[in-house]
Amino acid sequence: MPKTSSARKRHITLIGAGNLATAIGPALRSAGYQIDAVAGRALPASRKRAAALARKLGGRLEQLDEIEPLSGILWLCHTDDALAETAALLAKKSGWQGKIVLHSSGALSSDVLAPLQRAGAWAASIHPMMTFVAGITPRLKGVPFAVEGDREAVAVARRIVRDLGAEPFEIRKEAKVLYHALGSFTSPLLVATLATAERVGRAAGLSQKQVRSIMAPILQQTLKNYLEKGAAAAFSGPVKRGDISTIRRHWKDLQSVPGASEVYRALVQSALMELPAENKDALVKLLKNST
């Protein structure tokens, strides 16, 4: 298969203009990459976002079904559910020999790009373990990026990650789903737990501002303890002490907060599986009786 020239490997077309592309695009440009084009779907909102990102990055605006493989690298930054369809659509074009195609799904492997591989492209997945939300651009320095795929594409992906100041590591294809679930526990499900805690605080008569102010110091110290000492050493509170009466009172009053008692029970059950706790037998019995 023909090699893509090193010069063209610094030219990138981005597909998608969501939170990830909006953060990655400027970082790539700052690292010396040329963003040739930004492509989005034909939907008005998608096209508007793509146009704004293209202007910001100095690239062309293209429509997904009209894109040509002119850049050395094509980076797909849109939703997992659209990847297979997009790969099949793009593979209908000619000129993929030796091109690098990347996608940023955390759960899907490079196999989803098989139509483009059959058309002659090298494919890899390149996923940053970072949260991307509207209006906030995270620093990428030191962020781990999981990469896997064709050797040629992985080499390019690793170079891009290092150019961004981030840290590449290779992952097995079959491990990606669990790897991505790790990320879900670490960020969005953590936020979901904090949102439940916030509702409990509001039910106690505190304002949202008060709740967040109260949570901040203990949350920051807990994360510090965990990162420095690990889960067992960072674990504290009534479950660790085996304080049955307190847990029973928690359980009783949490019934008044929709969904909170179910979250509490699931987290206590998880803690008993993983973490040091006194009176485990009594705690397990309490959980069984609370169903």
Please tell me about this protein's structure.
With 291 residues, the protein is α/β, with parallel strands linked by helices. The protein has two domains: 8-173, Rossmann fold, CATH 3.40.50; 187-289. It is built from 13 helices and eight strands. The chain has helices at residues 19-30, 44-57, 80-90, 114-118, 151-163, 176-186, 188-203, 208-229, 231-234, 238-241, 244-254, 260-274, 280-289; strands at 11-15, 34-40, 60-63, 73-76, 100-103, 122-128, 144-149, 167-170. The protein has an eight-stranded mixed β-sheet. β2, α2 and β3 form a beta-alpha-beta unit. The longest helix has 22 residues, at 208-229. The protein is elongated. The termini are far apart.
SSE diagram, text form:
Elements: E1 11-15, H1 19-30, E2 34-40, H2 44-57, E3 60-63, E4 73-76, H3 80-90, E5 100-103, H4 114-118, E6 122-128, E7 144-149, H5 151-163, E8 167-170, H6 176-186, H7 188-203, H8 208-229, H9 231-234, H10 238-241, H11 244-254, H12 260-274, H13 280-289
Parallel strand pairs: 1-2, 1-4, 2-3, 4-5, 5-6, 7-8
Antiparallel strand pairs: 6-7
